[in-house]
Amino acid sequence: MTYISGEDRPEGGYEKPGGCPFCLAPGRPEAESLVVARGELVFAVLNLYPYNPGHLMVCPYRHVADYTDLTEAETVEVAAFTRTAMRVIRATGNPHGFNLGMNQGAVAGAGIAAHLHQHIVPRWGGDANFMQVVGWTKVLPQLLYETRDLLMKAWPSAAG
Known about the structure:
Elements: H1 2-5, H2 21-24, E1 35-38, E2 42-46, E3 56-60, H3 72-93, E4 97-101, E5 118-123, H4 144-154
Antiparallel strand pairs: 1-2, 2-3, 3-5, 4-5
């Protein structure tokens, strides 16, 4: 509900790095950070409002909005981190598939359009698409910091 209500949205919005959660995340104290892995140009961070457990985002450190504005090196590292994230999530959560994507612009669904981020969403058959009350199906949430610790331990020291 915090996300829906916009309670945690900075007063000036996300347009400037000072109010951008993706710019602020790498500098947060380890105990408060949802950063899973850090590269030279990009980092992997858990989504504060995940669609599923293990929902990661790969973000450049640089405050840039559009995929076409990434440098060649940033583009390569985003791809490498995405690939590594999928391997780590497979090793720790055994998903049946993934949704990968970037929403470019608010009209395309980007909640924070000012800072590019690649979503890596693990998917399991029947995960959240349909909850069968009669079948006693329940969602099994995992605390973000528990997910972060699990993924951090499995992340290789050299991303790739």
